[in-house]
């Protein structure tokens, strides 16, 4: 379950960074979330926090 949450958060983080990049270079039609910068930043922050919490939980389990 922890690995699944880390994996999903990594995917969301990568897609948010891709969306932010597409929005910055002007390719709004190819941006997965519509190129909204505020939402992209929030998605990246959430993905990092979930990844860190999952990593810490994995370390505690050992």
Task: Give an overview in words.
With 62 residues, the protein is mainly α. The protein has one domain. It has 2 helices and no strands.
In short:
With 62 residues, the chain is mostly helical. The chain has helices at residues 2-24, 37-61. It has one domain.
Salient structural properties:
mainly alpha, 0% strand, 77% helix, 2 helices, 62 residues
| Helix and strand composition category | mainly alpha
Separate helix tally: 2
Main sheet makeup: none
Number of domains: 1
Share of helix among residues?
over 70%
Shape: elongated
Task: Chart the SSEs and their pairings.
Elements: H1 2-24, H2 37-61
């Amino acid at each position: 379950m922890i690995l699944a949450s880390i994996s999903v958060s990594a995917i969301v983080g990568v897609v948010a960074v891709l969306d932010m990049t597409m929005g910055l270079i002007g390719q709004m039609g190819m941006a997965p979330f519509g190129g909204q910068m505020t939402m992209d930043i929030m998605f990246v922050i959430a993905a990092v926090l979930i990844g860190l919490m999952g990593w810490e939980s994995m370390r505690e389990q050992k």
